[in-house]
Here is the input.
Amino acid sequence: MNEISPPLALLAELTHRCPLQCPYCSNPLNLERGSGELTTAEWQRAIDEAAALGILQIHFSGGEPTVRRDLEALVRHAHDANLYTNLITAGVMLDAERIGSLVEAGLDHVQLSFQDSEPVGGDRIGGFKGGHAKKIEVARLIRAAGLPLTLNLVVHRQNLHHLEDLIAMAVELDAHRMEIAHVQYYGWAFKNRAALMPTRTQLEQATAVVTAARERLKGKVVIDYVVPDYYARRPKSCMGGWGRQFLNISPTGKVLPCHAAESVTTLSFDSVRQRPLGDIWRNSEAFNRYRGTDWMPEPCHSCDRREIDWGGCRCQAFAILGDAGATDPACGLSPFHDRLVHLAEQDAAGETPEFVYRRIGAG
Ligand code: SF4
Ligand code: FES
Here is the structure.
């Protein structure tokens, strides 16, 4: 195998605790409790090891990272280690004072999630009363503090009819960027697939709305767009390839190649509590298992896209086929692609069931 380059970014999942209960949360079904979380000193050591490894950016995420009272200390530590610091938040626990102290600690950027363009849908999907109105207020405070803002907009069959309004809301809130991402089906979203899956027609309409908005807003707002795998012909390059660009540290210190990797129950993951981060990145069994192209089965192994999409998503292959080493069934060349399309069409055509909200014990 070629020499292993350092990762670009670290996703630091400080906690699984969160006041919201989104039914498409990418956290695992077995949520960690606060008592098992890494301490401030353990996170600071992990940040130092990340900087020594060559990582350039750190994304503080969760759950809801602002539930950690030491968030400012961790942002300051990362800033002092010359990392670009980004906060990924639902926003409902922020106020002007907390935003001010985060700016003072060296925070560079905020990504704020919205569940819908209006309060009834937003509060229902997030499972948190008053959440939408609070987010609008917090978005304005973030901009008033001079921080650049990205809106994270996860879309699915229960809010796609508001896509135009979501885009208008992002412009009105003076966001620099919006990430419009169709739900990716792992963890809680896999469990709620029938309540979330759009029809192919809804997807096509959404794509047309995004294309027109990109044209209209060129030079003003950047729009990133992630389509649902189930209707794709070729898979996405998930995480830019397993163990190539990113790593994730879970609230208890497990080091993962992606946010959903714990759903692959055939793998076990090392912890920053037991092993240095650089050693895990370079030498751990879980990272090396699907790194590069040697592990690939056919049709990937002889495919000319193998170093473009790296065989797609390991977590999706495991969720659908029970084999993380299979070609992602989102690929039209996979012998199981029809199975995936059939699942999507079946879900999209059926009744919309109630959400199974993300909470400890509901998985
Ligand atoms: Fe990608 Fe494998 Fe499909 Fe080729 S066969 S496009 S490498 S997933
Ligand atoms: Fe885990 Fe795609 S989400 S590899």
Observations:
- The pocket of FE2/S2 (inorganic) cluster (ligand 2) is lined by residues 186, 238-239, 242, 258, 260-261, 313-315 (CB under 6 Å).
- Strands lie at 9-13, 57-61, 84-89, 109-114, 149-155, 177-182, 222-226, 246-249, 255-256.
